[in-house]
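::Encoded backbone::
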Amino acid sequence: MPELILFNKPYGVITQFSDHALHQTLSDYIAAPGFYPAGRLDTDSEGLLLLTNDGKLQAHIADPRHKLAKTYWVQVEGEPDEAALDQLRRGVQLSDFTTLPAEVERIAAPELWPRQPPIRVRKHIPDSWLALTIREGKNRQVRRMTAKVGLPTLRLVRVRIGDWTLDGIAPGEWQQRSVAQPSMGRQARTPNQPFKFKRP
């Protein structure tokens, strides 16, 4: 039976096991030979990263053709209006492609762990939180989407991939689970703070 690791990746950690001169890597947190990341999460993003020891499961999770839903909590600079949210829902024209329609809603500030280093919030500019679900995973896509509609991303935390969530996993910690079959993620939804996080 395939095994899956759910890892709450801290800010600044690179999603590779080999050493890096400037950043921590997965090997600083996970001692599980034979496991490899199923997809990626940018160094300056936080949250759920999946790793598996099964090639078919890895391909299923990482292959964009399966359109596995990924949900992010996004702290943005500014206050989104309905026009900006509707643009994200319809799809955003970026320089190299048009995004698929996203699910997005404004949410209250979630009860997250403090980020290190702290977010640099400009004193006279408000910030807001969005729950954003996409079914593709181009490079830095969420950041590019919010910037395109005038809402630069300040903090980005992935909280769900398909049916797998961060529930109960503190930053830098991981859980290992057996997986009977790939989760298609058909029931994924845009959550408004449904999870309970452990504090580091």
The mean pLDDT is 89. The chain has one domain: 3-178. The longest strand covers residues 153-161.
